[in-house]
Amino acid sequence: xxxxxxxxxxxxxxxxxxxxxxxxxxxxxxxxxxxxxxxxxxxxxxxxxxxxxxxxxxxxxxxxxxxxxxxxxxxxxxxxxxxxxxxxxxxxxxxxxxxxxxxxxxxxxxxxxxxxxxxxxxxxxxxxxxxxxxxxxxxxxxxxxxxxxxxxxxxxxxxxxxxxxxxxxxxxxxxxxxxxxxxxxxxxxxxxxxxxxxxxxxxxxxxxxxxxxxxxxxxxxxxxxxxxxxxxxxxxxxxxxxxxxxxxxxxxxxxxxxxxxxxxxxxxxxxxxxxxxxxxxxxxxxxxxxxxxxxxxxxxxxxxxxxxxxxxxxxxxxxxxxxxxxxxxxxxxxxxxxxxxxxxxxxxxxxxxxxxxxxxxxxxxxxxxxxxxxxxxxxxxxxxxxxxxxxxxxxxxxxxxxxxxxxxxxxxxxxxxxxxxxxxxxxxxxxxxxxxxxxxxxxxxxxxxxxxxxxxxxxxxxxxxxxxxxxxxxxxxxxxxxxxxxxxxxxxxxxxxxxxxxxxxxxxxxxxxxxxxxxxxxxxxxxxxxxxxxxxxxxxxxxxxxxxxxxxxxxxxxxxxxxxxxxxxxxxxxxxxxxxxxxxxxxxxxxxxxxxxxxxxxxxxxxxxxxxxxxxxxxxxxxxxxxxxxxxxxxxxxxxxxxxxxxxxxxxxxxxxxxxxxxxxxxxxxxxxxxxxxxxxxxxxxxxxxxxxxxxxxxxxxxxxxxxxxxxxxxxxxxxxxxxxxxxxxxxxxxxxxxxxxxxxxxxxxxxxxxxxxxxxxxxxxxxxxxxxxxxxxxxxxxxxxxxxxxxxxxxxxxxxxxxxxxxxxxxxxxxxxxxxxxxxxxxxxxxxx
Length: 834
Prior knowledge:
By secondary structure, this protein is an alpha+beta fold. Helix content is 39%, strand content 13%. The protein contains 30 helices and 33 strands. Strands 8, 9, 11, 17 and 22 form a 5-stranded antiparallel β-sheet that branches.
């Protein structure tokens, strides 16, 4: 692209030599200062995203009207004028893009003028029959990796394979662990290999670790592919994959060595390490739906009859010539007496049904059960007086054995299982080039969403027999997974990651020897338990966690807080009425985390209150303005520190809220008025009260005792509390000037005010964070992590607004986060991608 000449110049004016291509590169560099605040995904001249709420349109561009610009004579009428403004003012003053940089960016911006600006939808107007999630290939996070490993074995793993000494730490996108934009590097590969070797050795030396034992090469190969690799790959193996593992096991010098290598290979395979949730095109899915199925699956055509004993006739059932036997069994494995003392052999029965001239094909139980097996019968009609299960010792050279017990026997007329019309209609309505997850990919997506682990046997079976095309069946599995132990752990972990409070376990704070590791661990668990309380108790709304006069404590935390009510390691609900403590914000974890080693951090507390509980984004500062005013402010803070009467809030307010400086853009009305949140010390304990005043020890070596904290005692204000996404700092300044803010005094009062003033960010943030945690992608433009993610295009914006509406409806007046997660799990975006 050629350089852009000056649009208005004289012979004496300096030549303008801005380069459009270079300017575009600079502005779109995701690691640069410009990109943080200004993003124009479709390059139409309207900057629809970024960390500032001022949306620039180059066709109607005007400069800020602040008094600080009054004498600079910016006109906005030429590219040269724009370059001068960038050089002198961006990114925030003092400028960091001068000379050629400023001219190049101005040239690019000027080149966008005159285009038709398409501004994204502001509300759900989409009539699309399908809502799509973003398609991505990602490898397992450390937590998913450990859980997926554990799911393959019958005994607890010998180590925590999510720990930093076992696996490279996770990358984060949008503040949460996510590997959709990451590559597996050499160090991670080496970790995988070392772990796979260790686990393979452990599995073969630990009794009961595997669900099978190798007696013959044929049996070992079949058991490995059906009972291990099938669950490791989270889908059936191809013929080629089965042959590869057969060669590994059969060509080794011993079965033990062959099995070790097979396990190690499976745990290093991309099929295990990556979440294969890419799907096939909707066009191909539609072809597959209309194909003749490779195997026929039967299901009951009527309510099954319960059979007592082995006589269907005596139980009132008459065979039709098209019937389904549904039998549930438990089994025990025979002892292997070749070792001393004898151990279970790991063999389990294969079962066939016989009687009245009928002999079914044998079906392996593959474990102790309970296992439900189905047998289709097409050769019997009329009353049948005897049908019974029978054990089979060998199938195609594979040994089976052990005792079994039939716990339930049902018979029903059979029908061929059909793909539900609702699923056919949805795939038909989908864009042909969009993608639809197959049943096993869908099972994987649901399982990782709800449990951070691979699909269990029940979900894998549902995928195998086509149950996941029916939303009623999917709903049952979602309920089951959410209520499982892994589901509960996933919910608690979400809270710890969302609010960042899990990190309190690793902080160091001076000044209180009682702030021990046990206390920090208990603080982190307090937040997890609080959130799980609202999630699993239908009578407790999420919003109650912000206005709560209660918390959950164990004995350790009860003693540290000085609140009675907990007498053991178990966390119990305790009233905090009449105290400064209660709920998520006025908690030890939030306060101790958002502090420094030797003092509190009112800035962190204010920023994280907006970011974590309202999902508001605050513009990132550019280069700090260290002009005369800032230097004088630093000197003032130092002198006050020497005098010993300086509080923490004053220390930061003096230095950050200097009128006319870049810092004051955010600190004047967005951050510092929230300093009244600083009524807890740096280990999360309420500050002392003397003569009705909240006090602290003054900062510095001469710090006086019981210095009143004016910012807390006089109260604070939340300005622009109703804003969603990026905060317009100018609007916040105006609100402050007009006295239009939410008054509060102390952290607990501020937390309650978020609910009492019905701030939209409270529910919007719950939805935004839940969506990102579940799917790893943004649901709003403001949540786009510009380091890695593309902005939402116009179509995506419309669809995500509809998704937000659906989740808001699910959240409902009960403010039920579990109902909302269930609705998300059932929605199109999990199975349909583009």
